[in-house]
Write a structure and sequence with these properties.
The chain is mainly β. The protein has a domain at 1-24 and 35-81 and 200-235: 2-Layer Sandwich (Phosphorylase Kinase, domain 1), CATH 3.30.200. The chain is built from one helix and 15 strands, in the order βββαββββββββββββ. The chain has one helix spanning 55-67; strands at residues 2-4, 13-24, 35-48, 74-78, 95-99, 113-116, 119-122, 132-139, 148-151, 154-158, 163-166, 176-182, 194-195, 201-206, 226-230. Strands 7, 8, 9, 10, 11, 12 and 13 form a seven-stranded antiparallel β-sheet that branches. The chain has a six-stranded mixed β-sheet with strand order 1-4-14-15-3-2, with helices on one face. The longest helix is centred in the N-terminal third of the chain and has 13 residues, at 55-67. The two termini are 21 Å apart. This is TIGR02217 family protein. It comes from Kaistia soli DSM 19436.
């Protein structure tokens, strides 16, 4: 079973880190040592100080940690990095909310549809372990090195200065961009697969069975931390 991180739980700090799969050799007489790596690594993520202020938040946190079964079940979680996303409109978010039906009506709870303002797609098929892709832009701001993105809820980071193959119009419409990334692609993806820059997600699991413990002050408030590791067992 794959668990979805509850939307009402928003950490104060998030630290995604690509942990290298490297080993250090012994120190030579000159003080140097050899570094050997078997792969590009795997994601670790620490979510710190998640504000727990309501009864719903208490229940959702308890459910998440219990249902994760000490790391047995996967958790799909965002990286909460919208400020670094390629937003096409300065000082705006990565999505539009409250969009009504064609007749102008909203849902019964007063909400509407949501549409992303950052939409990109794979231009070609991408093979397992690929480290470069080309994307077609429907709408997005400039893609920059150091940005997170996800494909099929697997997290990656742009590691090269993107090259614009086809220039686009306003808000990047029609642009085609190619770039390198890490870690290598976890699962092969076909032409037209969404490349999520607006709200990238990672598939993780609990890093240890005892992480995520919740202590409540006067039975109501808490600020728990949780350590996650990528749900990936290697190629």
């Amino acid at each position: 079973m794959v668990l979805a991180w509850p939307s009402i739980l928003r950490p104060q700090e998030v630290m995604p880190h690509l942990m290298p799969m490297s080993a250090l050799g012994p120190v030579a007489s000159k003080g140097l040592r050899q570094v050997v790596a078997s792969d590009a690594g795997f994601w670790q993520m620490t979510l710190t100080g998640v504000p727990i202020r309501t009864a719903d938040q208490v229940r959702e946190w308890r459910w998440l940690v219990t249902a994760a079964q000490g790391g047995l079940e996967d958790i799909v979680v965002g990286v909460f990095d919208c400020r670094q996303a390629p937003r096409p409109i300065a000082h705006a978010g990565v999505e539009i909310t409250g969009i009504p039906h064609s007749d102008g009506a909203l849902f019964s709870d007063g909400s509407g549809y949501t549409q992303s303002l950052v939409r990109t797609w794979l231009h070609d098929n991408a093979a397992l372990r690929a480290t470069a892709i080309t994307v077609d832009v429907e709408i997005a701001g400039p893609i920059r090195r150091g940005m997170f993105f996800s494909i099929n809820d697997r997290l990656y980071m742009v590691t090269s200065i993107p090259a614009i193959i086809v220039g686009g119009g306003a808000f990047g419409v029609g642009q085609r961009v190619t770039f390198d990334f890490l870690p290598p692609l976890r699962v092969a993806a076909g032409y037209g697969t969404p490349v999520e820059f607006g709200k990238p997600k990672a598939t993780m699991r609990l890093a240890s069975p005892d992480t995520g413990q919740l202590s409540l002050r006067i039975g109501r408030f808490g600020d728990p931390d949780i350590d996650l590791v990528e749900a990936w067992d290697g190629f």
